[in-house]
Design a protein that fits this description.
10 helices; 9-stranded mixed β-sheet; globular
């Protein structure tokens, strides 16, 4: 059997600052290496020109990440330690809907919050729990931001359109708790939901306060997922896939967008990351895309814990009111 080669797709790239993606190479990179080390542009062109025949593999992350089976337990243990150390007086649980999972954790910094950071977890809309991700609040809290991590009903108990509305409700509930700007990020399926909060078909109460959206390894076009086995749970049809794909919708405006992805991620995630930045360019928002060197799909969110990381600087740095 011919060995499979790891390659990058060749995609058209458009950014608010030039026509190529920025590359984050943080000084606190946790020794993940340099994504440029194993790139081969000739291989990339060969793979990009080939038609995808296995859509399940195209969107599978774990089989392509060494040690993937250990990440869930790592996230759970880090989150538990964080929750144990964070003062109970600065942790609230907000209920934003009637379903059992419609609760959010709200973590408050020591001083008056500079604003609200909302992080939406991934899991292809059908797995994970908000309690697994509490540790990712550390970087924002250190920079003086309150952090909300919403839960939501999982597929197949809810369809993606209903999950979008649950997150909209969670966003507004958290925003009522404090003043200041709102910054939204999410990972993977959560990146899709983060981008949806900026789409013109939604009108959250706090829309005027949303200043920055950063989908991390987000999914901008859901139509390819109709070809995967997971669609037995997602239950996407063409109509819903179109209605719930940020790349097929217009942004509401009033915020800036950075599409962030690990440079070592699967080609479809690199393509989807570039897609949204490309499509929303010129629609009255500033767009940018970043491929974070040395990071894959599971490691790319780790820098949310580090207030000095390039990711935290992108989220909470210059340009916010």
């Amino acid at each position: 059997m011919m060995a499979r080669r790891r390659v990058r797709p060749r995609v058209a790239r458009a950014c608010g600052r030039g026509n190529r993606p920025a590359h984050a190479n943080d000084r606190n990179d946790r020794n993940h290496g340099d994504a440029g080390d194993d790139r081969n542009d000739g291989d990339a062109g060969e793979e990009a020109d080939a038609m995808i025949t296995d859509w399940d593999d195209a969107y599978a992350n774990g089989p392509h990440i060494p040690g993937a089976e250990g990440y869930v337990s790592q996230w759970e243990s880090r989150s538990a330690r964080f929750r144990g150390a964070h003062p109970a007086a600065r942790h609230r649980v907000l209920r934003h809907g009637p379903a059992p999972r419609e609760e959010s954790d709200l973590f408050l910094p020591e001083a008056e919050p500079r604003g609200l950071f909302v992080f939406i977890h991934g899991g292809y809309w059908r797995s994970m729990h908000r309690s697994m991700w509490s540790h990712l609040a550390a970087g924002a809290l250190a920079r003086g931001w309150a952090v909300a991590i919403p839960g939501y009903t999982l597929c197949p108990d809810a369809r993606i359109g209903a999950i979008t509305r649950e997150i909209e409700g969670a966003l507004d509930m958290a925003a009522r708790e404090l003043d200041g700007p709102v910054v939204i990020a999410g990972h993977s399926a959560g990146g899709h939901l983060a981008a949806r909060m900026g789409c013109a078909d939604l009108a959250p109460e706090c829309a005027a306060r949303i200043e920055r959206i950063v989908p991390i390894s987000g999914l901008a076009d859901l139509r390819p997922l109709m070809r995967t086995a997971m669609n037995a749970d997602l239950r996407l049809d063409l109509d819903e896939a179109r209605r719930e794909s940020p790349a097929l919708l217009e942004p509401r405006g009033g915020f800036d967008l950075t599409c962030w992805v690990g440079a070592n991620e699967r080609p479809e995630f690199l393509r989807q990351n570039a897609l949204l930045a490309n499509v929303w360019t010129g629609m009255e928002i500033e767009t940018r895309q970043v491929e974070a060197r040395g990071h894959h799909h599971f490691s790319v969110i780790a820098d949310l814990e580090d207030p000095r990381s390039a990711l935290c600087e992108t989220l909470f740095g210059d340009g916010l009111r």
